[in-house]
């Protein structure tokens, strides 16, 4: 193997592979991986008749021409992948509540929470309003380049999720639901940018496509 490279990338996770794939269009790139398999957290594995993703449950921002879709498309990572947009983002089971959280249906999610915690309706509405405003301000920050027109970021920029929940919500069980995996901010993000699940299993195939040009050495 010729040992001269323009770029050396340590780690063949999705980050290293995509960067390597894009750079390799006009640079000589070496990607080094300490594990036997590439893919990092983006790998799938089989047990009996079932296929498991090591981490990826769904990918957001795959709308055509979005930044992420463009990067993955340029890297060849979306070729031959069947994506579905599930109606439910996820299901979580708490000791007293079994929740199926709808995708891209903020009103539906709010209504679900109202039905479980009717006495918290006003707080839920206020909390979602604050989170939505923070989300929108973050989204336009790269254009504004100043916090002057971002009153919610100025007010809550140093607050933790726990501070926000304390301000608007009284019931600890509702706080637990709102603080779970993909809490509200992330839920809002999914409302603006739908999440897709790669039906055929994300990674083995995808990684193979990304690294198809790679010269693999043990
Ligand atoms: C449980 C879980 C669920 C997730 N769910 C989602 C989801 O639904 N949607 C989503 O978009 N994201 C999800 N993520 C996040 C996503 O998996 C990661 O952001 C992404 O895989 C990170 O990729 P990476 O290339 O940056 O890092 P990694 O995947 O960590 O890859 C780093 C690679 O570098 C290698 N390496 C490290 N040190 C060295 C070294 N010194 N020399 C050589 N090689 C080295 C490692 O072996 C590894 O292969 C989830 C993560 C977890 C843990």
Features of this protein?
disordered C terminus; two-stranded parallel sheet; 218 residues; three-stranded antiparallel β-sheet; 16% strand; binds flavin-adenine dinucleotide; 42% helix; globular; alpha+beta; FAD/NAD(P)-binding domain
Could you walk me through the main structural features you see in this protein, from its secondary elements to its overall organization?
With about 220 residues, the protein is of the alpha+beta class. Helix 4 packs antiparallel against helix 6 and helix 4 (about 120-145) packs across helix 8 (about 185-190). The protein folds into 2 domains: about 5-85 and about 195-210, FAD/NAD(P)-binding domain (3-Layer(bba) Sandwich), CATH 3.50.50.60; about 90-195, no CATH class. It has a 3-stranded antiparallel beta sheet, with no helix packed on it. Strands 1-2 form a two-stranded parallel sheet. The longest helix has 24 residues, at about 120-145. The protein is built from 9 helices and 9 strands. It has helices at about 15-25, 65-75, 105-115, 120-145, 150-155, 160-170, 170-180, 185-190, 205-210; strands at about 5-10, 30, 45, 50-55, 60, 85, 90-95, 100, 195-200. It binds flavin-adenine dinucleotide (FAD).
Summarize the structure.
With 218 residues, the chain is of the alpha+beta class.
Question: How are the SSEs ordered, and which strands pair?
Answer:
Layout: E1 7-10, H1 14-23, E2 29-32, E3 44-47, E4 50-53, E5 59-60, H2 67-74, E6 83-84, E7 88-93, E8 98-102, H3 106-116, H4 121-144, H5 151-156, H6 161-168, H7 172-178, H8 184-192, E9 195-198, H9 203-210
Parallel strand pairs: 1-2
Antiparallel strand pairs: 3-4, 5-9, 6-9, 7-8
């Amino acid at each position: 193997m010729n040992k001269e490279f323009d770029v050396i990338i340590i780690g063949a996770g999705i980050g290293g592979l995509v960067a390597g794939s894009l750079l390799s269009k006009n640079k000589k790139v070496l990607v080094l991986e300490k594990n036997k398999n590439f893919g990092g957290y983006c790998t799938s594995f089989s047990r009996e008749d079932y296929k498991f993703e090591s981490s990826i449950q769904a990918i957001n921002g795959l709308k055509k021409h979005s930044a992420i879709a463009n990067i993955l498309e340029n890297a060849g990572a979306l070729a031959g992948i069947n994506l579905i947009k599930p109606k439910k983002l996820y299901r979580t089971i708490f000791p007293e509540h079994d929740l199926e959280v709808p995708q891209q249906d903020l009103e539906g999610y709010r209504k679900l929470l109202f039905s479980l915690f009717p006495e918290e309706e006003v707080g839920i509405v206020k909390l979602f309003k604050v989170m939505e405003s923070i989300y929108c301000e973050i989204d336009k920050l790269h254009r504004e380049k100043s916090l002057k027109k971002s009153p919610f970021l100025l007010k809550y920029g140093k607050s933790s999720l726990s501070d926000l929940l304390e301000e608007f919500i009284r019931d600890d069980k509702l706080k637990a639901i709102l603080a779970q995996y993909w809490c509200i901010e992330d839920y809002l993000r999914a409302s603006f940018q739908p999440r897709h699940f790669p039906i055929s299993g994300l990674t083995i195939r995808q990684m193979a496509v990304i690294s198809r040009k790679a010269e693999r050495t043990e």
